[in-house]
Amino acid sequence: MNPQEQTNQQQQNQSMMQEAPAVMTGKDLNYINDMMAWNLTAAKKAHSFAQSCQDPEIKQAIDQAGQMHQRHYEQFLQLLTNQNQPPTYQ
Q1: Would 17 be classed as within a structural domain?
Q2: Is residue 39 included in any domain, yes or no?
Q3: Strand ranges, E, within 5-77
Q4: Has residue 30 been placed in a domain?
């Protein structure tokens, strides 16, 4: 394949990938699992730290951070459970 054909092939490949594929690999699932675990752990730790905090402003800031992590966890869970079609795994 000459350099011009390679360039054309690369441009076609780039233009085709406008959306993520409807395939979830084992590696994708591992990444999602890790992200969910990190967010759940952060939410639990923030809740625990907020409960032991005496300063109301700091307690509120920690609590808000924990709620953010809990929302992120729930968003991942919703993405995985609200699919119209089950994902294809490779």
Answers
A1: no
A2: yes
A3: 23-24
A4: yes
Which domain covers residue 63, as residue numbers?
26-81
In our burial notation (b when 16+ CB lie closer than 10 A, e otherwise), range 64-86 reads: ebbeebbebbeebeeeeeeeeee
Element (H, E) at 43: helix 26-52
How many structural domains does the chain have?
1
pLDDT digits (tens, 9 = 90+) for 6-65: 766 666 666 566 676 677 788 888 898 899 999 999 999 999 999 999 999 999 999 999
**Amino acid identity at 48:** S
Output the pLDDT for position 29: 84
Cβ–Cβ < 8 Å for 88, 28: no
d(CA 62, CA 19): 36
Give the pTM: 0.65
Q: Is residue 54 assigned to a domain?
A: yes
What pLDDT was estimated at residue 11?
A: 64
